[in-house]
Amino acid sequence: MATPYVTDESGKYIAATQRPDGTWRKPRRVKDGYVPQEEVPVYENKYVKFFKSKPDLPPGLSPSEAAPPKQHEGASLSKSAKRNMKRKEKRKQQHQQGQDGDADVESVSDAVENVSISEGGESANKTAAPASASPPDDDSAAAAEKAKKIKNLKKKLRQVEDLQQKVDSGEIKQLTKDQSEKLGRAKALQDELEQLERDS
Predict the structure, then answer these.
(1) Which residues does the UniProt record annotate as the domain WIBG Mago-binding (predicted)?
(2) For the segment 80-99, what is each residue's pLDDT rounded down to a tens digit?
């Protein structure tokens, strides 16, 4: 916005202007050659001026020649960009292999849980099928769910046994409501565990 100047016999003036709140500024006398603050150009050092005036393209390259490489970005990658793409591909493959490896770990851990050691020191494997067999996804998901339930039931039974031992030894004299309920469910938990182990 250009500043309105008023000239009379006593000199040059900036005319009175109205502020946004409705009040008026007084007219100000200025000397010849005065440039208002908002019209003064921002100072730029020589480096800023150089980079602003610098062309986007290398010297001697016309804009029409520069356009085709931008269309073929995938084909004309730098060495580092190609290296980065290879790394990304490797990471993706490793991630996919890692997910497959997790399934193997789960099947082995399930097999280890199903192995029990008898008092004679001999190990008896409760599962009939080998752990390395890979059933379809639905079956494996169901088997994983069953294994999780079995593990949970075994944990609850251990807690019940520990509680029963504490009661028998006199460590716990008065049972709470929860503790008595837990002891009452021992038989039901045992039956459910046996049923699941028979099904699997």
Answers:
(1) 10-36
(2) 888 998 999 988 888 887 76
- pLDDT-derived band at 2 (thresholds 50, 70, 90) equals low
Among residues 23, 190, 25, the alpha carbon closest in space to that of 13 is found at 25
Asked whether residue 27 is domain-assigned, the answer is yes
Q: Is the four-CA dihedral 128, 134, 138, 140 of positive or negative sign?
A: positive
16: left (phi over 0), alpha (psi -120 to 50) or beta: beta
Tokens of 138: 């639905």
In a domain, 106, yes or no: no
Q: Which domain holds residue 189?
A: 141-199
SS3 category, 11: strand
Look up the pTM and report it.
Answer: 0.31
